[in-house]
Amino acid sequence: MLLSAVLRTSEVESRATRASLTELLSPQMGKDIVWFLRRWAKTYLLVDEKLYEQISIPLSTAFGADTEGAQWIVGYLLEKVINNLSVWSSETELANDTVELLVTLVEKRERANIVVQCESWWNLAKQFASRSPPLHLLSSSVQRSLMKALVLGGFAHMDADTKQQYWAEVLHPLQQRFLNLINQENFAQISQEEAVKQEIVATLEALCGIAEATQIDNVASLFSFLMDFLSSCIGLMEVYSNTPETINLIIEVFVEVAHKQICYLGETKSMKLYEACLTLLQVYSKNNQSRKRSDATAEEDQYQDLLLIMELLTNLLSKEFIDFSDTDEVFRNQDQGTPASNRTVSAADVVLYGVNIVLPLMSQDLLKFPSLCNQYYKLITFICEIFPEKIPQLPEDLFKSLMFSLELGMTSMSSEISQLCLEALSPLAEQCAKNQEKDTPLFIATRHFLKLVFDMLVLQKHNTEMTVAAGEALYTLVCLHQAEYSELVETLLSSQRDAVIYQRLADAFNKLTASSTPPTMDRKQKVAFLKSLEEFVANVGGLLCVK
Known about the structure:
protein transport, mainly alpha
């Protein structure tokens, strides 16, 4: 009954638009209708009955697999989408919600199989591919989502000839128009013309949409298609080096490809992506240096650049702990290309090169931007956790910047940032213990952090949620600097004038390390230490806090 009521309301709206009565309608009402239809379709349309022990018989009969009702409503919803995009192209929120409904219709194969049988779907695809009005008037974000939907639809069930025809009508025009434009002899001269810039931006948005459509069963096709574009995108970095919005969009293409595809790529394909990302960063670094020499831009101008670069590096790092590939399983029917063993670029190379760009540009003023600050500390924590052996190899000035960032995050940032920094310390201390090299810059830095973490736990008020992260950091640092830890305890005890407080502290410290004397990097000892630390904080907490 509820669905019927919404469909009747939707039909009244559709008939009003066909009668040119749009000015009498409310975009908010249109938005609410699409909001409901999208959620209903996602949940109830063509439900996979195998996933449920019991299912509503009326629902299954009306909108289940192989029912006329399912075919009818898929066609109706598709017409609703097309009508909305024609009438409401200037209403960004309504257009965006409408395209999200379209994505819902094609993201599940059973629904997509019905959608691609509709003639209106093919007309929509041709209209969008040819940049015809009014679709070319849609906002960038809506065009991106529309391309995502069109790509997802292309992986529905079709015979080989039909599928080839579909891609020829959806992706081939995009590729051909882009290549024809950038290969013009005078492209450098015409590149700043508004029409040319709009075409480049539209293509970059479409590439982001294609990347967003990635699923495990289509990643092979989409990766190959997108890789052909990435080298051309790097060339655009040179052409549009003084156009920040375009530079951001180019980097965002790489961010989306890494985000959506890296977890599915085997070693060979990962190498290709790493190489492309490294080249991108090298070009960005060169352009950024020349920009700094010629134009002292405000730090805020680099905010979006840095945020996207750090997001790219974090996405590349995610391969180390989220990997669904099976030695290029999804690419098995394609040419494997150069064997991975002959390639030299790794995730570590790209990430550390990126860190060389990011660290010198980060400042305390830029860290006042919450999203940038979070992304920065997330990145350096991942690097310390995944590649701790690379940290001592950083150039001296970058190493100092990194250590200063960790100290700043621990002492002057939010509890969330402080926790990230504490989580970064443990692998660094463990790396020092492995190397058994004293008087290295990292060894000396960890000694300094021992005092900071000790003071945080014993002398300062801190968020109790950080106790575990601080405790793990403290334990690894104590293993590394046992003499210095004993000295910190003795100094603290000797400063006490109250005999009762002295004794309470002495007993608490003795219990704290009783289960791990001498402390080693043994997991059982660490667990016992953390358990004792809870009791320690409960007994000593507030006794000595100075702030």
